[in-house]
Amino acid sequence: MCEFCTQHGEGRKWYEVMQNYSAELLNDKARQEYIRHFIPNVQKNARTNIAKLAWIKNHFPAVYRIIRRLGTKHMKNIHFGQVVPLEDAEKIIEMVQSITRVACVCRSVSAGKKNGRYCFLLGIDPYGSDIDFADLQCSLETISHAKAKSLLREFDQAGLVHSIWTMKTPFIGALCNCDQDCLAYKLQVEKNLVEMMFKAEYVAEINSKLCTGCRRCQKICQFQAITFKHGQCSIIEQKCYGCGVCRQACTAEAIVLHPKKILAGGCSLLVENSAADN
Ligand code: SF4
Ligand code: SF4
Ligand code: SF4
Description:
Structural class: alpha+beta
Distance between the termini: 23 Å
Number of strands: 11
Bound molecules: iron/sulfur cluster
């Protein structure tokens, strides 16, 4: 279990707790304000902030370590994610009142792609509020629970990683489907600048008796968590985010997801490579 399960999960996975999707939380004025300006803020600041952080990391490592610690703490309070496999993403869809498909702000900022509609707002009615969608307004689409699940399966087939996101923690306001253009991926995995999301509550395993060594799983894994040796693939457990997308790439059905062991203190590891910077 991650630390959010301890803080917001009532002894369960925190994203299985209905309260974390509630209208009561959503109606909080400060949260409404945060959501209203979320997209323009990301569009305006994300690229500059990433560049600044990378520069500080290179030139002033001691200062960077302090900023990283404070930045992670700040993100945990306002906008933090967790990877979830397809089956948990489908359960989340069942728990929410409404789903709105919207263009992906990360892909717009990091790759200039404004039409990639991979982001689902959960419980947030964009028509009944004054959220500032900036130039993503035309992408809005209210979708049924069945359509959302069908899209999730399609995204899973395409190797996109599902994750949930808080809008002022603990309210869960988005379910995302990401490739490596995701800003969280860039910040946490690619550039190792700051933590933005927990790994899933699972880890993958390959059955060596079934693996044919085709390497399809290795190609689809966004986290370089699969290694190839002696004609077979195996999982590097410390790198695995538990997203589960490698499973559908494997026609030999050699890959399974296991629930992660609970570590002492009840928290799962965030990113194994963050230790290198501390
Ligand atoms: S988290 Fe993923 S789906 Fe959501 S906006 Fe970013 S890249 Fe798009
Ligand atoms: S996709 Fe399946 S069979 Fe192919 S290398 Fe990976 S685990 Fe082995
Ligand atoms: S090895 Fe882990 S991180 Fe990579 S695709 Fe499979 S479940 Fe996801």
